[in-house]
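Regression test case RT-17, inverse folding.

Input:
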């Protein structure tokens, strides 16, 4: 089966690699929109106009399922995209629920783009799953560009992660697929103060469920 994977940039590559490893008999077709990166400061309408034609091109190429490997797109426009496209979409959204279940200090940190943090879906996830949990949202607004261009400012990352750890966060959620590339760096900075979680295993589990319904 052809599986489409979409993101604004190298976040998609990280997810595509994980899928290829888990499903070696399927073909992964990766589409990135690095020309228009970052997505994380765009409006839902801007995102829709950019993303729809690219996902349609994946369908035209024969993809039977598409993984939207982008929290920014999922939390803003996945509903609209699902109404328009003929293939199932597997989305990625911030792991608020698992983080809230896992925290012992009652404080979690969510690293995400400004558009994700400002979305209704994100607010809904917090209200639904994180009542009574303090959710810290460090400023990661320039991280995706930094990672895409391979110009990682370790000092900046260390400052943000250090700050949430000092405030007591014991779970750090990577809620932008670009940040998967710096998971090891964040892990090292957090040390034994916090666990760092990201959704690749959950995406693959969901993708397998969706594929089982298609074949
Ligand atoms: N990788 C995307 C996400 O998961 C967005 C990165 C960007 O273009 O700002 O949100």
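Golden output:
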């Amino acid at each position: 089966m052809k599986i489409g994977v979409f993101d604004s940039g190298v976040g998609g590559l990280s997810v595509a690699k994980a899928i290829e490893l888990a499903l070696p008999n399927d073909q992964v077709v990766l589409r990135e929109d690095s020309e228009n990166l970052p997505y994380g400061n765009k409006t839902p309408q801007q995102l829709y106009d950019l993303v729809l034609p690219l996902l349609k091109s994946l369908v035209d190429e024969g993809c039977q399922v598409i993984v939207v490997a982008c929290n920014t797109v999922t939390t803003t426009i996945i509903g609209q995209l699902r109404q328009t496209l003929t293939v199932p979409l597997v989305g990625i959204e911030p792991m608020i629920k698992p983080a809230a279940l896992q925290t012992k200090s009652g404080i979690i940190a969510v690293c995400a783009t400004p558009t994700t943090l400002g979305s209704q879906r994100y607010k809904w996830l917090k209200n639904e799953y994180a009542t009574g949990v303090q959710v810290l949202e460090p400023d990661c607004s320039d991280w995706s560009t930094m990672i895409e261009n391979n110009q990682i400012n370790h000092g900046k990352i260390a400052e943000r992660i250090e700050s949430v750890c000092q405030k007591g966060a014991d779970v750090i959620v990577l809620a932008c697929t670009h940040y998967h590339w710096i998971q090891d760096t964040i892990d090292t900075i957090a040390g034994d103060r916090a666990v760092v979680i990201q959704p690749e295993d959950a995406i693959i589990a969901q993708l397998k469920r969706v594929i089982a319904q298609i074949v």
